[in-house]
Structures are given as structure tokens and as C-alpha cells.
């Protein structure tokens, strides 16, 4: 449709037909499924779990609840459903219309009266674009008037009868008539508002201040919630739970490589003023920190540890490497273990400590423990895979090696006159290529040996000294 109809007469002649929003999504979804188009771009690791459930729910034309911990792409999945809407839909384009009414099926009295009083050529048609047909709201602080509506005192004063629809101010849901409405953190929603919602889901009508307005509201409603609050009795009224068609369970990535893929996709590192090379083991360590945090008994797992934790830490680590690169004028910028000393800024606040435990550990101590554990786990995998055990042999006995995030890479190169050939293979980077890459490898090995209790370490003003016995 290059030339879109501008009045009702042209629209009828064009053969356009009305559909409910769920039908429209269903039809476009079926078409895309049939042509093998990518359905959920940017969603990683849900191919066998979440996506099949969503596909079924879309085919069943259900309202959906996304149930999962924070940072499991719930909002992104909900926003992604916009791509199954038509590019644009026609509506009755008159100033007094409160909603985007379907010309063939107007629900507001303003549009009904206008259509009755005018010829089809005189009824102007506007086009409502796909991206404008989605609205979301966060539950805390949401009032009935915000999402359902309120009587407008100004209009009453102007002499409109209270029983007239013109006296109303519509909330978000009626305004999303023929669109998608998403309610985040459903359990935090006031009970009165939940009652209003379940009326809309069930009866598709709205009652405002006890005045019933029968409105055939057509909307796809999506919800998100955290299992720990959703499953607690009394947080969500049973009638509402009962009317949500499908519950989609989300989860954290099943394995580390998927987590790394998500982290890199979301961290969105721009090609910067300096070339950045991130050895794979550094990505593994960052993602493993998140994995350890999700297992830690010191961290409250009720709300989970978000994917944003990995993403923020990854960006911080790279920023630290870039700063070194710029200050010392060395290229490329290669993150190393000592850069992880800056993770407090990006991590603290994203972890909720489990305060029930008797262990009185500060957030910093918990983070230190989690980072140390992550380094040990990743390093031991390298030892098992590439026999890096003999690696301590290449550092002479009794040497002291100073490392730190502000030390020039050359300092490390001196420590390591010849690079063992196993390194290139093990680290998937050419350790001889640049002193910065070699420095990162050296530091990973030292931190790993320390984590395995093979060597000792002392700390002084942000620098570490490792001692090979």
C-alpha cells in the first residue's frame, strides 16, 4: 500500500479488513514462521526453552505473563512483539476521538456519531504506525486513573453529563485500544488496579468511579513478574492470575558461552580511538563472575543477578584497559586481571546481599570472593585443557613479579623472556604479537596460580606482587 487511503470511502474500496490485534499478530506471526524469518532478533539462548512457549502463546492468541528474575530479557521479549503488528492501521482521524477507532468498528460515541452524520468521503482516515501501538508501565506507583481512567472534573464543570463518555479522561489501556499494553512487575500493582485489569481481560469493559462504560476494548496485555513475588499468596489477585492465557518462564543463560554472547551483543563496544583486544579468557572471567554471583550463598537469589551485571562489568574492564592504553600510549588496549580492581563501581548495588545469613560480610568482600572464585574456575579449566600446570616453571624460582592496572606492558615482557608455545594455543591469542597481550596472559597465569595456592601474593597501593617460591 504505497498510497494509503485518506477517507473512509477509499478505505472501503481498498479492500482493507478489520482484525483484532491478536488476530493481526497471529496472522503476521504465521506468515513469518512459514517463511523462516527471524522471529526474535537479539534474543540469545532461548531457542529450546522460552521461544517455543512464546510461539504457542502467539498462535493461541493469549495474553502473556513473563515470569523470571531480573535481567532475563523480559522487557525485550515484550517489546519484540511489536514486529508482529502491521506496519500501520487505519483509524477515524477526528480531533474529538479519544482513541484510534477502527472505522468499521468504532467504539467511542464521538466516532459513532461522526460516522453516522457524514458521508464516507467526509470521514477522514489516519494511519497509526506499528511502533506507536505499544505502551508499557511499571507497577509501583501506578494508579487506576493512569491505566484505566478518571472522570475529568473540568469537563463536568463545562456541563457535560457525568454519564457521558465525554466526561472521561482515558488511561493508558483504553488509549492502547488496538495495540499492545505491557505491565511490568505485576505483583507490585495496587489491588484496585488489578481488579480493573481483570475486568478488561474478562469483560473487555471499563468501570470508572462506579460508572460502567461498556467498551469493547481490543488490546493484547502483557505482564512481567519475578517468581519470588508472583508466587507469594495475596500479591496478585487469583481472578487476574486465572485470566492470563500463558505464563512464559525465562531463565539465565544455560552456559557461559551464551552468557558471553549476550554480554558482547549488549555491551555494544564502539570501535574506539584505541584498538581493543579482549582475550577470550578475560570474557570468560567476567561471565564466570556473574555465574558465581548467581550461586553465592551471600547474595540474595530471590531477585537474581541480572545480565546487566556482566554487561556493566565488561564495559568497566574495557574502559580500564583503554585508560591505560591512552595514558601509556600503548596499543592495543588489552584488559588484564588487574583491571578487575575497578569492578566495585559497576558491581556494587547490582548485588543484593543475603542479610539473613549470620556471616557479616561487606559487599566488597563478597565481590572479592566471587571474583577470586571465578578466576580459579576459569584458570583450572585452562590447566586441564592445555596442561598449563608446568607454567610456573617458566617463572624462575624466587622471583617477585609486580602487576597492576597502571603498569606498562613492557614491565611484564621483561618477566617473560620467551613465551611458551602452548600459550598461543591455550589463550587463542598470539602472545608474542604485542607486549600488551602478553602482559594480560602473564597476569592471568599469576592470578590463576595464586588462586590454586601455588604462589603467594602481597598487595600494596593497588599493585600486587606475586612471589614464586
Secondary-structure map:
Elements: H1 8-14, H2 21-35, H3 50-59, E1 64-67, H4 74-80, E2 88-92, H5 109-117, E3 125-129, E4 134-138, H6 144-147, E5 149-151, H7 153-157, E6 168-170, H8 172-175, E7 179-184, H9 191-203, E8 206-208, E9 211-213, E10 219-225, H10 227-230, H11 238-243, E11 246-249, H12 256-267, H13 280-295, H14 307-328, H15 343-347, H16 363-386, E12 400-403, H17 409-415, H18 421-427, H19 435-451, E13 456-460, E14 463-467
Parallel strand pairs: 1-10, 1-11, 4-7, 7-10
Antiparallel strand pairs: 2-3, 5-6, 8-9, 12-14, 13-14
Helix pairs in contact: 12-13, 12-14, 13-14, 13-16, 16-19, 17-19
State the share of residues found in helices, binned by percent.
40-55%
Indicate the CATH topology of the largest domain: Rossmann fold
User: What count of domains describes the coordinates?
Assistant: 2
Task: Give the low-pLDDT segments.
Answer: none
Query: For the CA atoms, what is the radius of gyration?
Result: 29 Å
Principal-axes shape call: elongated
Please list the strands of the largest sheet in the order they lie side by side.
4-7-10-1-11
Number of helices: 19
Q: What name goes with the CATH superfamily of the largest domain?
A: P-loop containing nucleotide triphosphate hydrolases
Report the portion of residues in β strands.
5-15%
The secondary-structure class comes to alpha/beta
* CATH class descriptor of the largest domain: Alpha Beta
CATH architecture of the largest domain: 3-Layer(aba) Sandwich
Cα(first) to Cα(last) distance is: 77 Å
Q: Profile the largest sheet.
A: 5 strands, parallel
Number of strands: 14
- Mean pLDDT comes to 85
Amino acid at each position: 500500500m504505497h498510497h494509503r487511503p485518506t477517507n473512509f470511502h477509499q478505505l472501503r474500496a481498498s479492500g482493507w479488513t478489520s482484525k483484532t490485534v491478536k488476530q493481526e499478530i497471529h496472522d503476521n506471526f504465521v506468515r513469518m514462521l512459514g517463511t523462516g524469518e527471524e522471529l526474535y532478533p537479539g534474543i540469545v539462548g532461548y531457542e529450546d526453552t522460552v521461544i517455543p512457549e512464546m510461539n504457542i502463546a502467539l498462535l493461541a492468541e493469549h495474553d502473556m505473563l513473563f515470569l523470571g528474575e531480573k535481567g532475563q530479557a523480559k522487557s525485550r521479549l515484550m517489546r519484540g512483539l511489536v514486529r508482529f503488528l502491521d506496519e500501520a492501521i487505519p483509524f477515524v482521524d477526528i480531533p474529538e476521538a479519544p482513541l484510534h477507532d477502527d472505522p468499521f468498528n468504532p467504539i467511542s460515541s464521538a466516532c459513532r456519531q461522526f460516522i453516522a452524520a457524514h458521508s464516507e468521503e467526509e470521514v477522514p482516515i489516519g494511519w497509526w504506525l506499528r511502533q506507536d501501538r505499544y505502551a508499557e508501565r511499571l507497577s509501583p506507583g501506578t494508579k487506576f486513573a493512569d491505566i484505566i481512567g478518571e472522570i475529568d472534573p473540568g469537563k463536568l464543570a463545562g456541563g457535560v453529563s457525568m454519564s457521558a463518555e465525554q466526561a472521561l479522561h482515558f488511561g493508558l489501556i483504553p488509549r492502547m485500544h488496538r495495540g499492545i499494553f505491557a505491565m511490568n512487575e505485576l505483583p507490585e500493582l495496587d489491588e484496585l488496579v488489578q481488579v480493573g485489569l481483570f475486568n478488561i481481560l474478562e469483560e473487555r469493559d471499563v468501570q470508572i468511579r462506579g460508572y460502567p462504560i461498556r467498551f469493547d476494548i481490543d488490546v493484547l496485555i502483557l505482564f512481567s513478574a519475578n517468581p519470588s513475588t508472583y508466587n507469594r499468596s495475596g500479591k496478585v489477585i487469583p481472578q487476574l492470575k486465572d485470566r492470563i492465557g500463558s505464563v512464559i518462564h525465562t531463565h539465565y543463560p544455560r552456559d557461559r558461552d551464551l552468557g558471553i554472547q549476550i554480554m558482547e551483543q549488549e555491551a555494544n563496544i564502539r570501535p574506539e580511538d584505541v584498538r581493543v583486544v579482549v582475550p577470550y579468557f578475560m570474557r570468560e572471567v567476567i561471565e564466570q563472575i556473574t555465574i558465581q554471583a548467581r550461586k553465592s550463598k551471600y547474595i540474595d537469589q530471590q531477585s537474581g543477578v541480572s545480565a546487566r551485571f556482566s554487561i556493566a562489568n565488561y564495559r568497566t574492564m574495557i574502559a580500564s584497559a583503554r585508560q591505560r592504553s591512552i595514558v601509556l600510549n600503548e596499543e592495543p588496549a588489552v584488559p588484564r586481571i588487574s583491571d578487575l580492581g575497578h569492578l566495585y563501581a559497576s558491581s556494587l548495588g547490582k548485588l543484593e546481599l543475603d542479610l539473613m545469613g549470620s556471616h557479616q560480610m561487606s559487599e566488597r568482600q563478597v565481590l572479592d570472593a566471587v571474583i577470586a572464585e571465578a578466576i580459579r574456575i576459569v584458570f583450572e579449566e585452562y590447566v586441564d585443557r592445555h596442561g598449563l600446570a608446568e607454567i610456573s616453571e617458566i617463572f624462575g624460582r624466587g622471583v617477585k613479579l609486580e602487576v597492576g592496572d597502571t603498569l606498562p606492558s613492557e614491565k611484564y615482557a621483561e618477566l617473560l623472556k620467551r613465551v611458551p608455545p602452548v600459550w598461543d594455543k591455550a589463550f587463542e591469542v598470539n602472545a608474542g604479537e604485542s607486549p600488551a597481550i602478553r602482559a594480560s596472559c602473564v597476569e592471568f597465569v599469576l592470578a590463576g596460580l595464586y588462586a590454586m595456592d601455588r604462589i603467594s601474593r602481597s598487595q600494596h597501593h593497588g599493585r600486587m606482587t606475586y612471589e614464586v617460591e
